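Memo to structure team: turn this sequence into structure tokens by end of day. - J.P.
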Amino acid sequence: MTKKFTPHQTAMAVASLVSLLSVVALQPASAADKANTKAAGNYVSGDFHNHTTCSDGSLSMKKLIDKSVKTFGLDWFVQADHGGNNGNNNSNCTISEDPFEPVPPALGLTSSPTGPYPPNTFPSSGQPASTGKGPRTSWASTPGVTVKGTNANGAAGTLINSMWRWQEIKEYQYPVAEAESRARQKPIWIGVEQNAPGHEHVSTTVLKGQLPWPQAGVAGNANLQAQYEYCFDRSDTDTSRGAENQWDCSVSASANGNALIDATAKKIRGTNGNTGTTVPTLDNAPDRGHLKTLEGIRWMNEKAPTTSYFIPAHLERAGKYDPVGNRGFNIEHLRNFNNTAPNVAFGFESMPGHQAASTRGEYAPNFGGPGIDSVGVGTYGGSGIYAAKIGGVWDAMLGEGRNWWFFASSDYHNRGQFGPDQRESTQDFQPGEYQKDYVMVRKGTNNLSAEGIIDGLRSGNSFAGSGDLIDRLSFVACAANPALPRAAFKALVEKAAFNAVAKNAEVRINGCATMGEKLVVAPGADVVVAIAVRDPQGTNNSPYSFPNPSLKQINITQPLNAPVLDHLDLIGGNVTGYVSPADTANYAGLEGSAAASNPSAGVKKVFNSSNWVAAADGVRVMSYRIPAVKVSQYFRLRGTNLPPATPFETDANGNPSNDYDLQPYDAGTTPTIAGKVACADAACPGHMRTIAGVKYSSYDVAAWADLWFYSNPIYIEVSKSVKVAGTK
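Reply from structure team:
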């Protein structure tokens, strides 16, 4: 039975809070910042990986921004199209669909003032591509546009038909982003989904020069972001140096990349591949691309050290790393990135977009080529195996004490067989519709800024989740005060966490640490971890109100658009220190190897309705005591709407199952239907996969059925034990 706060517990907690300042002064512990020097702030939600018609998306800049910050209420937004050219960049994404406001009605409404809607459809919005107007107008058809740069072969003076991303960013996309940011009074700026040399994709930004809201009266520019794309995107083979910009891509702190810079293009030519036999600077070579990617991180750290980020995206999708190909990220590459510039390369996007795709996240067998499966084959509860597997790659990084944080994104391109204003999807969800990154901004919501967002991302004081399973979180570790009885101190810290969630803020108490911070304690000290989450009441953005088919299997009737947090796992592991690159046996390795594992990691406590305290407004409060700590360690959280042992969704211990196995038929020619989740409700939509007349949970329904959130870690450093070097 769900517990409630008793009057005695509440009174004791309040009394303890009154004497808080005198109490915490006795604690033999220190955190990253003292409470009285740490600025207050709030958690704000956003998305940094999505696409427009300037690359391969289906929406213009204005409509994508409108959908993100108005329809789905994001507080901040980074527009980040693919780098390069490759024939994608042939549409003028600054021409908006007309109209793109107001937002179409929610699915389920059957009529408008002018008459009934056809089933599962909405009023048309924007010009169809066949008209030659609107978002699919080519650059070549846009009056006054001159396409700059050389063609893909680098022939001097030869112009390309489509536009290089650097020109789009600098001359066309940035002015739209800045204007939209100021009009909507939210931080909106430009990034790039980089085609990383030697790897696959990376979400990047170079904010310096850009002046989104709340700046006023001064025009900014995205020149540095454009230059980064020219210099370091694998698909940008332009040799013009940005035409009139005449960029030079050399790096002052270069390891050995400057020696490989081509004299004409002024950037490193070539990428991972077999060594050639002609001009050395033009050759592909094993690991050449990875070297170039590291040079790009050094360049960011040199040009904009506090306003850049480099976050590998859907990094398991294309399979393991190939030194003579361009795909994948093994753990040694993540370590290399973080070693090169820990203030720039500080995390990964292991909860990818494309959550409504036929294979969730687009993770699948053979994705990286024949016989090259996504690492882990599929996603696990919508996350890649690097983060979803306890004791795997992420825990290995945290076990070193690194600042390596977890993020999510929409990666929005299109809705598959549906239009952008329909709520169904067989491919992507729009930014803020399904997944959100929640980031602490210490200047407060009234002074929300792009710089504050990037500071928050870098700090690790953030969490991410899907389907609005939770929308607020307070997660704190405090050194127990020996002057207080255990019950009193437990109540004190739980109440502090509860108060923080009520304010969408954090616990700010001396002797306590939150996500992305470390708490330094003496050996033998007791530590109390307190958690408060808010499971938002009412419905989320799902258009479906029929029962969740995954839960229906186990006789739980719960509307698909009204998920309930089932349980929360407190995961912990030991910190053993950074691994040296010279330690080849433990520094480099594939997922599952000793180098990519942390055997000390495990679930330390499971919280559910039997042992958490239920408060008003969907808040759940819980705590865990760590007695007599002896070694440095960390704790992180995950939670889901699915109980342990939900068939095809979770195992007996509550770990997420492989989402690819949920598909209602395999990759062969003979469908296998045994044991998959039926979507048997009469309201189950017609676009579900259907075999022998039976609909199976798939596409967007499968995504809405299976929801998770992840927090970033709190470190506990024990004096005279291993130092947690990656956080302050």
